[in-house]
């Protein structure tokens, strides 16, 4: 019993660090884009922690009921950044853009709830075959690995100042976490991320010293509702919100599918993904979370696909540590002194630990693709999707400036381009069938099967 309590406590701490690392950087980015003061950025960070904790707890308890945390969505971050840049270029007040974004998140959340409650999301699951999900996860690993690598080198948030000592510490953390996940035994393997971050923080602070902890004017601070003002909507944002609502669906499906795959690999869960409306519930809670993001004026949140890689590497399958970490993040968000201290977590160390966990995503995606035989058609689809998705990462964003905001994000995002390419080709390019003679009878079989039969007779 004592060992179980200790395991739960340490596992909860590791999940807490995971939630923290994936939530702490986005408020800083948004603060820079919208030229928020340090106080406003700190309050945005507080609201982000609060919403992430509430949304993750809600999804794990009433939604998909899996250890998949919610976190700031890439699509909403892209729309936030583009709207901020457009507002600055056109001389529009930043607050007006933020109020439109609140209205957009409310609309997108409502659309996702309607699609899930009516069962449309379950119908859409048929579109997301193992090949499509596999391409999505592989592209996610490829695209975000660049973000994490830049973070390890300290070239994020418009900073290009490089410190070789910090880079060496970051790569040391990366190899410690990766090594423990592969060769570690027992608790060393289970808590590899936490061990790597603790060692990295010690090395970082010994090398760079510690920053002074910001003073807070209050002991307890509740997050404000509609901190940017009441939500607003216009035609452009309504259209963008509808598209965003549909774009969020594959994220929900892929996140749950990836986690189910990891759990089944380790014989932790034998339930099918559709059982008891799991995807339906996940969609509803995700829509509610998007609306909560608008109410508390933060970036919209979605289920984190990266959680599958984290769980596979650490073996943290139990729900109890996950729930405790969510409650801890909510509690921390209420105390300014606490989240001010957590904001001092060195970014190179955090990014290094996350990159080590993220290396699992490409493998999970490849396993998904290999669930079915790789014939010439499927190999070609994967090749085209990965080529176009990877290539779009290097296309200058100025090429898409004439398009609506949400389309700018979709077409300049390698993950979305790769997934949409695989989705379209998978369902438009059907397997070719040919006639074969079987004891005087003519029957149709798929081309790849006939090829297999011919090869087997050689």
Give a short overview.
The chain has 458 residues and is mainly α. The protein has 19 helices and 4 strands.
Low confidence ranges: 449-458
Sheet of most strands: 2 strands, antiparallel
Q: Rg from C-alpha positions?
A: 23 Å
Specify the number of helices: 19
Characterization of the model:
The chain is mainly alpha-helical and 458 residues long. 70% of the residues lie in helices and 4% in strands. It contains 19 helices and 4 strands. It has helices spanning 2-33, 38-62, 74-90, 94-117, 120-124, 130-152, 164-183, 187-190, 192-208, 235-265, 278-295, 306-314, 319-333, 336-342, 347-369, 376-392, 405-411, 414-428, 447-456; strands spanning 70-72, 301-303, 433-438, 441-446. The strands form 2 sheets. A two-stranded antiparallel sheet has the order 1-2. A two-stranded antiparallel ribbon has the order 3-4. A hairpin with a 2-residue loop joins strand 3 and strand 4 (441-446). The radius of gyration is 23 Å and the shape is globular. The model is unreliable at 449-458 (pLDDT under 50).
Helix and strand topology:
Blueprint (H helix, E strand, L loop, with lengths): L1 H32 L4 H25 L7 E3 L1 H17 L3 H24 L2 H5 L5 H23 L11 H20 L3 H4 L1 H17 L26 H31 L12 H18 L5 E3 L2 H9 L4 H15 L2 H7 L4 H23 L6 H17 L12 H7 L2 H15 L4 E6 L2 E6 H10 L2
Antiparallel strand pairs: 1-2, 3-4
Pick out its properties:
two-stranded antiparallel sheet; two-stranded antiparallel ribbon; disordered C terminus; 458 residues; mainly alpha
